């Protein structure tokens, strides 16, 4: 890289991303290192995407980077590195715990087939009744619907597992992704299953690298067809499930049979634009404090108070603004109805505290997210299956584009549901999961 055209900052960011990827590869089979997953996705969207935008010449007039490379990377790279250190520091002293409990994991789930079926059943039931439930229960039912994947983890490590049921659960995940043209959950649960697969099977480093290469290629292919598929799926409501499947896999097959289309400028522009979260952060850097003043911690305080203090304690607490409101406040962009965008943690840090304060903010938030992870690792010494619940708690936290209120809200509510399920299984069903 030192002989390339990359600047020192871009080279530093690329090398740090490779370091995180290497750490992630070596951690397969040793638990579910969610802190590395979080920082790896942040590296892809806050560092790699912007570098590609700066150096490929593909810089969309609206979705492109709005400030000079040095101004952005001098903020983003220290912010990501400090975020990583924050995620890492509370884990010091317990990092060896996953290795200790892995050997006990298979033995612990050996007699928990019934418990796995219960979890899968609850997940399917929640998915089935969601369309008929009041809107206020949607999020709770969404969390319950994710239990079927936790049940699959239990079932997969059990020697008497039902593979047909595992295939059925995965098929519903694929069909749900195709129906909504949203692939985030599909990609993440597949990724998390690879961790569980490596726990059960001894996988060589060569196979891990090959899996990563194939995975990146498939994601790239998915990105190349997703925009076109989404336009058709969202506008043609008459498409049946079979029709959606045929359309999607037909598009994938077309890309695989004609790989030259993957290198078209339009496809590359869409892929880089989707990967790059930095353009929104640079919008924040251009807008604050020149048009709107720094929030001075207002949105951060609101996120913690609204998440940690229930309304019966603080009845007049404000409803925390979502992504659309924060996009308008910190970038001046007014989103159309149905458009989902957010300023990300890095953007929120800058919008509240500026460059140096935003970098420190990332370090402190990393510590906050890591505390729950540390708690689960410690609890796994008593019950190794707590490791299975890590993806459940962090499913939305790993997304690099969400703001603080969204991530905190998900983490806290998922924790409540998790302990509610554990309690109900223990007290009502008289089983320990």
Short description:
The chain is an all-alpha fold.
Descriptive notes:
The protein has helices at 8-27, 34-55, 69-88, 97-109, 113-129, 138-145, 147-156, 163-180, 184-200, 205-235, 241-257, 265-275, 278-287, 298-308, 323-331, 344-379, 390-394, 404-427. It has 18 helices and no strands. The longest helix is centred in the C-terminal third of the chain and has 36 residues, at 344-379. The model has no long low-confidence stretch (mean pLDDT 87). Helix content is 69%, strand content 0%. The chain has 433 residues and is an all-alpha fold. The radius of gyration is 22 Å and the shape is globular.
Throw out a few tags for this protein.
mainly alpha, 433 residues, 18 helices
Oligomeric form: single chain
Tell me the strand percentage band: under 5%
- State the low-pLDDT regions, or none: none
Tell me the major beta sheet: none
* Mean pLDDT score: 87
Radius of gyration, in Å, reads 22 Å
The 3D shape can be described as: globular
Order of helices and strands: HHHHHHHHHHHHHHHHHH
Calculate the terminal CA-CA distance, rounded to whole Å. Answer: 49 Å
DSSP, total strands = 0
Helix content: 55-70%
Return the structural class: mainly alpha
Number of continuous helical runs:
18
Write the layout of secondary structure elements.
Elements: H1 8-27, H2 34-55, H3 69-88, H4 97-109, H5 113-129, H6 138-145, H7 147-156, H8 163-180, H9 184-200, H10 205-235, H11 241-257, H12 265-275, H13 278-287, H14 298-308, H15 323-331, H16 344-379, H17 390-394, H18 404-427
């Amino acid at each position: 890289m030192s002989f390339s055209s990359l600047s020192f900052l871009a080279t530093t960011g690329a090398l740090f991303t490779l370091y995180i990827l290497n750490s992630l590869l070596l951690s397969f089979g040793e638990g579910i290192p969610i802190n590395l997953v979080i920082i790896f996705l942040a590296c892809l969207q806050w560092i790699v995407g912007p570098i590609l935008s700066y150096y490929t010449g593909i810089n969309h007039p609206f979705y492109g980077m709005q400030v000079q490379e040095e101004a952005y990377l001098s903020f983003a790279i220290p912010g990501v590195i400090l975020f990583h250190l924050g995620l890492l520091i509370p884990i010091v002293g317990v990092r060896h715990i996953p290795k200790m409990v892995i050997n006990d994991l298979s033995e612990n789930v050996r007699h928990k087939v019934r418990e796995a079926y219960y979890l899968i059943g609850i997940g399917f039931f929640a998915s089935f009744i969601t369309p008929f439930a009041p809107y206020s229960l949607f999020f709770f039912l969404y969390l319950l619907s994710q239990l079927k994947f936790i049940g699959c983890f239990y079932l997969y490590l059990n020697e008497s597992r039902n593979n047909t049921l595992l295939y059925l659960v995965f098929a519903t995940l694929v069909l749900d992704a195709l129906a909504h043209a949203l692939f985030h959950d599909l990609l993440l649960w597949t990724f998390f299953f690879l961790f569980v697969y490596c726990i059960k099977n001894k996988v060589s480093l060569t196979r891990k690298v090959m899996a990563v290469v194939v995975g990146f290629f498939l994601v790239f292919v998915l990105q190349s067809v997703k925009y076109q598929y989404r336009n058709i799926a969202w506008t043609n409501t008459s498409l049946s499930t079979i029709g959606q499947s045929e359309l999607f896999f037909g598009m994938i097959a077309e890309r695989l049979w004609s790989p030259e289309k993957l290198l078209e400028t339009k496809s590359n522009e869409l892929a880089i634009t989707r990967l790059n979260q930095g353009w929104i952060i640079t919008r924040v850097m251009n807008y604050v404090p020149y048009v709107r003043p720094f929030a001075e911690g207002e949105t951060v305080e609101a996120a913690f108070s609204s998440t940690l203090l229930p309304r019966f304690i603080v009845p007049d607490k404000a409803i925390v603004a979502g992504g659309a409101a924060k996009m308008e406040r910190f970038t001046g962009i007014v989103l159309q109805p149905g458009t989902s965008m957010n300023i990300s943690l890095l953007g929120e840090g800058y919008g509240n505290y500026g460059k140096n304060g935003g970098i420190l903010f990332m370090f402190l938030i990393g510590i906050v997210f890591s505390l729950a992870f540390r708690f689960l690792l410690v609890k796994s010494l008593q019950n190794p299956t707590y490791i299975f619940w890590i993806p459940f708690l962090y499913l939305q936290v790993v997304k690099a584009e969400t703001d603080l209120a969204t991530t905190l809200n998900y983490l806290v509510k998922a924790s409540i549901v998790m302990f509610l399920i554990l309690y109900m299984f223990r007290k009502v069903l008289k089983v320990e999961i």
